[in-house]
Amino acid sequence: MKKMMLIGETHAGKSSLIKALSGQEFQPRRAMALQYFGPFINTPGEFIENHFFFPALITTSADCHVLAMVQDASSRSSLFPPLLPRCSTAGGRADHQD
User: Fold this and answer.
1) Domain that holds residue 68
2) Which GO terms describe its biological process (predicted)?
3) Where are the alpha helices (DSSP H) in the chain?
4) Strand runs (DSSP E) across 9-79, as ranges?
5) Domain for residue 98, yes or no?
6) Are 96 and 62 in contact (CB under 8 A)?
7) Cα separation, 44 vs 30, whole angstroms
8) Which residues of 11-31 are buried (b: 16+ CB within 10 A; e: fewer)?
9) In what order do the strands lie in the sheet containing 40-42?
């Protein structure tokens, strides 16, 4: 099964996007842990807000086919490092054909 990891700041809309894409009721937990819901991996906002968690994001993204970076449309700045998409796909499943 192809997996999609959603990353973004707290209250950026990651859980709402999972609800919309899955068509099912999704209740996010307020714990600082990854949450798996079918093909979706919901990450805590703290993972992108605190650079000490970047290795966890990069490691988890290696098992994903899609990395969705969710940005709050009303935010004036972004916490996404410029090279994050490149780091997360190098050597991961995105480089392999299914």
Assistant:
1) 4-91
2) biogenic amine metabolic process
3) 14-22, 46-49, 54-61, 84-89
4) 35-37, 40-42, 66-70
5) no
6) no
7) 8
8) ebbbbebbbeeeeeebeeeee
9) 35-37, 40-42, 4-8, 66-70
Counted domains in the chain: 1
Q: 66-70 and 4-8: which strand pairing?
A: parallel
Beta carbons within 8 Å of 9's beta carbon, 6+ residues apart: 45, 48, 49, 71, 72, 75, 79
Q: How many angstroms from the chain centroid is the CA of residue 73?
A: 17
As given in the structure block, the two tokens for residue 14 are: 């990651």
Chunked in runs of 10, what are the mean pLDDT values of the chain (98 residues)?
Answer: 88 89 81 86 88 84 86 81 59 49
- Any idea how long the chain is? 98
Q: What whole-number distance in Å separates Cα of residue 68 and Cα of residue 27?
A: 19
For 15, the token pair is 């859980």
Residue 97: inside a domain, yes or no?
no
77: tokens are: 């700045």
